[in-house]
């Protein structure tokens, strides 16, 4: 889940433990297709199909006619594809044909029975590709929903993910306002089965199930029951994964969570998810305000944190927070002060001014921060906040040191450069803090300061204890770290292979401006005694440097056919970056990149997805795997990159 630094700060000082057919007739109008693995919205609309039959007619005959009843002509591509599927010699050939059938979308209705048969194949790839193809048929595959529901329990999570997504595609394509009883029962069965799947052990399955549930439009009663039963489970090992998935859905999850706020059993968990979603939770402001005013202490506190995460759109809730600032409960007062600063409501000026003299120094610190956030133009308020928070950096309590670093870095944009530099040195000192959480908050604060942090970080590169952590921060700063590139290059020769790897990642993040590192990286790449990870990192960094790494091109080309699959994949990607005009590489690179989008390392998956998009239509064979990654990857960046790559490959 994402971190909102100031939310993290409040969580610390409040003492909250966040546990955690025919193409002759134009298509009928359709609802917006789901964001699923299976297809991009324009693709659903691009395939014409006959208008939907009259509702009464639909109720009187089966949705899926026998295959023999479907008109086929020798010119119809589905005829040849069905024969090819039946004759496929192995599972790889079978998957290729299934994907070709899927490309026909709604015109592949005649192959529905064949695809359903393939969902029982012993090969999981065959099963998930078949489920995907069924979804692309749309509402004409309604009769396959029972099969897809069974596949939700498949041992392979990708099969379950694709099955959930396919149900969503079928429902999105079914634009009937009134659905006959038999079909409505199929959808009702889907709601029940998908509800149970929202606590699946795999986040990909949970995400697909929740998205499809939303498309099925369960009644408020069904939705409340679902959330009450799933989010009120006493075992955090069940609740937290579902919570993470809800938060990861962003705005799509908010309607679910607003309903969850109505149930005493689920509303605390719902506020946690809304907090993580942040500004996109704005539709929940009214419900959260009510909970902040009337809930139990823990619920009030978390509701105010959620309102704080929403930010200025939650300003109408300021009166509730101002009242809580007078509470006898100290934790509520902390949360209220923080929330008032986050929503930046001037309506609370009087109560904050009164609280500024509180005898609790930490509350006074939070209040000072809140007043400075509301009035960044008032130098006296800003100076007072900086003074108090800098004192907090030296508190005996680790939680207060962590909170102070987060609060100060949150104000950094409004501060003079001289003050920012002073803070950068103090944040860098926190990297040595005996408490790991304090060290992490110091690193996050340095990243937020940007280029101002470079000199303190350069100095600490000489400390072998801190070198690895400093390199991680420089990698996060990316191209902003260019001024210290020479110091990073020195770390490429470090005796510790872990440091050499971190240095290569930092060089990669700096990119073309790190061209001076090419000779050292090439040395690592050709070192037969170097560990595989060092060679992978060197090849990746050279690719990120791009055409300026031309001296490494010959060696890199020789590695494209390396027996080491990972090295061959990274080398293929790097060659496309170093010599982007060399189209002869595509035949070798595209298969390698298809594998790379499923690699263990997030950065490899991200770069592979971006590169496939840059290749464009020539990378069309990667569409199925990119569709999958765009939905189920654990990284939001990778999912977004895969989605953008799909648009480029499809020429949109």
What does this structure look like?
It is a single chain. The protein has 652 residues and is mostly helical. The protein has a domain at 31-174: Leucine-rich Repeat Variant (Alpha Horseshoe), CATH 1.25.10.10. Helices cover 64% and strands 0% of the residues. It is built from 37 helices and no strands. It has helices at residues 5-13, 41-46, 55-60, 77-87, 91-103, 112-118, 124-137, 145-151, 157-173, 181-197, 203-215, 220-231, 236-248, 254-260, 267-277, 285-294, 297-310, 318-324, 330-343, 349-355, 361-374, 379-392, 398-411, 417-430, 436-449, 454-460, 467-477, 485-490, 497-510, 518-526, 532-545, 553-559, 565-578, 586-596, 602-615, 623-632, 636-649. α20 runs antiparallel to α21 (361-374). The radius of gyration is 28 Å and the shape is flat. The two termini are 30 Å apart. The model is unreliable at 1-73 (pLDDT under 50).
Which helices and strands appear, and what pairs or packs with what?
Layout lengths: L4 H9 L27 H6 L8 H6 L16 H11 L3 H13 L8 H7 L5 H14 L7 H7 L5 H17 L7 H17 L5 H13 L4 H12 L4 H13 L5 H7 L6 H11 L7 H10 L2 H14 L7 H7 L5 H14 L5 H7 L5 H14 L4 H14 L5 H14 L5 H14 L5 H14 L4 H7 L6 H11 L7 H6 L6 H14 L7 H9 L5 H14 L7 H7 L5 H14 L7 H11 L5 H14 L7 H10 L3 H14 L3
Helix pairs in contact: 1-19, 1-23, 4-5, 5-7, 6-7, 7-9, 8-9, 9-11, 10-11, 11-13, 12-14, 13-15, 14-15, 15-17, 16-17, 17-19, 18-19, 19-21, 20-21, 21-22, 21-23, 22-23, 23-25, 24-25, 25-27, 26-27, 27-29, 29-31, 30-31, 31-33, 32-33, 33-34, 33-35, 34-35, 35-37, 36-37
Beta-strand fraction estimate? under 5%
CATH superfamily of the domain at 31-174: Leucine-rich Repeat Variant
Query: The biggest beta sheet, please?
Result: none
* Mean pLDDT metric: 84
Radius of gyration: 28 Å
Q: What is the top-level CATH class of the domain at 31-174?
A: Mainly Alpha
What count of helical segments does DSSP give?
A: 37
Quick one: how many beta strands? 0
